[in-house]
Predict the structure.
Amino acid sequence: MSTPLAHIVDDDEAIRDALTWLFRTREVASAEWSSAEEFLAAWQPDWHGCIVLDIRMREMSGLECFDVLQERGNTLPVIFLTGHGDVPMAVGALKKGAFDFLEKPFDDNALVDVVIRALASDAKRQASQATQASVTHHLALLTPREQEVMNLVLAGKFNKVIADELNISMRTVEVHRARVFEKMGVRSAVELAQLLAPGRDKGAGGTGNSGEH
Amino acid sequence: MSTPLAHIVDDDEAIRDALTWLFRTREVASAEWSSAEEFLAAWQPDWHGCIVLDIRMREMSGLECFDVLQERGNTLPVIFLTGHGDVPMAVGALKKGAFDFLEKPFDDNALVDVVIRALASDAKRQASQATQASVTHHLALLTPREQEVMNLVLAGKFNKVIADELNISMRTVEVHRARVFEKMGVRSAVELAQLLAPGRDKGAGGTGNSGEH
DNA sequence: TTCCACACTGCGGATGACCACAATTGAGAC
DNA sequence: GTCTCAATTGTGGTCATCCGCAGTGTGGAA
């Protein structure tokens, strides 16, 4: 775990200093890395924030660094900076999942705005991924048999039918079913279904009652 | 309804002819439009396929055309072609949802590959949207009261509680509940929850039974 | 005015879900 | 060898769901 940082990866110290100062004026916490290698060596999958990545660097390029990060399962938004980018490069980067691609010279405010959006995007992703991870974790607590029963419950089948299909007694199904609910922290099959398939709004209001009898 | 077409929008007849021929050799059905205006006048929201859009045209530009399409709720993938694009233009187009952005001269095969991917992407989107629309349609068949009851059912509440909250009798809740199931084409609250929140895989196999009693 | 959709209600029964109490068996851990 | 855990089963009972049958009242459309 860490606080959200805008990671500046650039081998030009003057630019790093300028960006660090720029971010500080807009109250964006940042960190500096003087090469892609240095950054990759430190990178941890649980970091929060975003990455501001220069494309042209002496050793490993920003694009190569990006590829390595993708392979490692990076989820941080990556904002590319380049002084001499071309269209195919920009298109390729964006289609591979880059957050943005800015050409130098860029407007300072525009960059910070992008970084702030990237930080917000990452925060949102982290949040949704956290609940997702929690569900997956709870799911892992289920024994194989319990998962089997759970799937059949989610298929809308009666305990009797489940018992038949698994060649066990109804009573056993009930026990498994109860344990699934307990371990997953829900109290009904409906809650379970929603937990495992979050989605959609509800059309009309819920508790609002209009007329009475 | 219509068959999937690659819509070529370009005011240069030579290019249109070349693309049409190119697509035909790869068995991609296409249509030609000699201007953005002409295309926009014909465009229908239920079209399938994709759009190959030249940026530089005499009257309305491809980018403007794209903006209009977005406003109208277009969902077809848009592939931009340009002879003199710059990075900000490409980045802007992709971030607004363009499918791809190719610079002339481009590799013919590369373009067709992109078009084929775009067609596949659209087909997939159409399919998922169709089931989505079906659900919405069924939802619209519910009376207000039925929707109210449905939401409370999806909240995992007992009929008794629902009856309390709506100040009606349990029997009435049961009737509404049954009608909701009937109209939505499901036979249990679990199925309903999954219909309204499609999602996730199921971990282990379902019906496979290993040991017996 | 008549017809119809919608909302509402009661009764009673069949079926399913859930639970406490009580136990057995087999596999791997200590 | 004992312990723990997963998986299994039965009994008996409570609560919830689902359903058919039968009926009331209201507001809008024909």
Summary: Residues 158-160, 170, 174, 177-178, 189, 211, 213 of chain A lie near DNA strand C (CB under 10 Å from a C1'). The CA atoms of residues 79 and 100 of chain A lie 5 Å apart.
